[in-house]
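Reopening this one. Same input as before:
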Amino acid sequence: MPVGSRLMIQCKNDWRMAVISAVIEENVILRICSPKGGTYRKKCTAETVINFDGAIPFLGEGAWKETFVKYDFRW
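Same output, byte for byte:
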């Protein structure tokens, strides 16, 4: 997937939105959105398998719609 693509990623307790922010050598850097408005980064290998639910890409296993994190909608 190209830089700037969005996908769902499974965290410890929930599913969150992520963006591919960089591709460096054999690694892909993801920027993950936290529910309180901040972001953090995670590094994955370029060979990491991405699954699709229709047109929605996701990284992890399980039903992402059931435990999708609720973001702060004030902004």
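So the earlier flakiness isn't reproducible anymore. For the record, The chain has one domain: 6-59.
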